[in-house]
Amino acid sequence: MRLALPLAAAVIAAALWWRRNPSACPYNQRFWVQAPHPLITRERMLRVLEPGPGERILEVGPGTGYYSLDVARALGPDGRLDIFDLQPEMLGHTERRARDAGLAVHPCQGDATSLPYEDASFDGALLVTVLGEIPDQVRALGELRRVLKPGGRLVVGELAGDPHVVFPRALERRAGEAGMRVERRDGTPLGYFARLVAA
User: Fold this and answer.
1) pTM of the model
2) What is the pLDDT of residue 161?
3) I need a labelling partner for 107 at 20 to 30 A (CA). Which of 66, 92, 93, 138 fits?
4) What does pLDDT average to over the chain?
5) Spans of all domains in the chain
């Protein structure tokens, strides 16, 4: 019991520091992004993103591919899933998983505030528990808006308990600053997918 209170205080202090100092989940702690997420399930993500055969989708921050493989399957052989991450280790992990499953993904390493894609390149984009890790979230959302085709949609997934969680009202504000609006939301503030479109 004497250790429990200081340990809890240390965990809370670390979470608060991490929240004020956004950064990507390190590859050596990938177990955090591999666990099933009962509030932000793959089925719920697919229902909100609605990836269609032949579409081109961008996933920013795929982690180890927890959602990626389902999106790639939904796009079919004529579609394309581009995965973009700050960490080459995450990209390599997801690419290996996709290859083992007989699927193709197209990795690119970089910073989400400066996407190396042409304007209007994608039918849709996806970020799950990633937006809060980006120091300039409005700029990243603006970049995603730029690379989406007219009528394209961006799906943001968030989960309470993540030290970088972006709650719905904060997402609405940041989306508005980036020229987007929340079209629909599936879930609760504790775990949701929001679909954003150009305002």
Assistant:
1) 0.85
2) 85
3) 138
4) 89
5) 23-198
